[in-house]
Amino acid sequence: MKKMFKSLVLGCCLLAATAVQANASGTTAHKPSPDATVKMLQEGNARFVANKSIHPHSDTNRLIQAGKENQGDHAYATVISCSDSRVPVERIFDAGVMDIFVVRVAGNVVDVDEAGSIEYGLAHVNTPVLVVLGHTQCGAVTAVTGEVEGHGHALERNIPPLVDNIIPAVKKAQAAHPDKHGADLVPFGIEENIWQGIEDLFMTSPATREMVKSGKAKVVGAMYDVSTGKVDWLPDAKVSEILQKVEQNPARAMNAMAESAHK
Length: 263
Hints:
The chain is of the alpha/beta class. Helices cover 49% and strands 10% of the residues.
């Protein structure tokens, strides 16, 4: 009996030491590789499209777990998506509580707040993948397209500075498809806006660039079809091309870490 008691005590001590170590480092969890993570997202979306979602990690036990554990030990992807109600991120990837670190903003633009949120998802929640997720029929890109083409309409004062990151994307779409206008141009602008978001992130986040270059994290572009539920994955080669372009741009941000607030 004493021997059993000593074994239990030793086991508890080891568990406590492990917990302290986990708290000190933020997480001790082993995450899937970036490519394996993308495959998990693809499989989840395939289940969603086939109406065979299994709704993982969505019960009371998971909520109890979430109240006790670090999300960094569980979340496997960071996703920046549009705020559009037709894009329910966890549902379309058939994911649950503590599975995806989600950043949502109109037009899935990447400005300061979004870049900081993404950095947190990659560097502190330790997700191996960032998905920049655009979607069909995007109202933000449609509005900016109208403005760029000269037939926009009045917007509330805070909306123009929110979506101004989309302007370069629409102009690139115009240049690549000079025969397209209005509604016919919008789909091209939506895809360009995904690439623009990735470029804006790389320009403003040296930490993300370093994580991608080291292989710790992967950035992927994807397009969600609101009418079918299907996610189409955009070419990895384009992300590499954008990263290389940014690395040659002298205007890119260079200091990965913020200055201490105590200086």
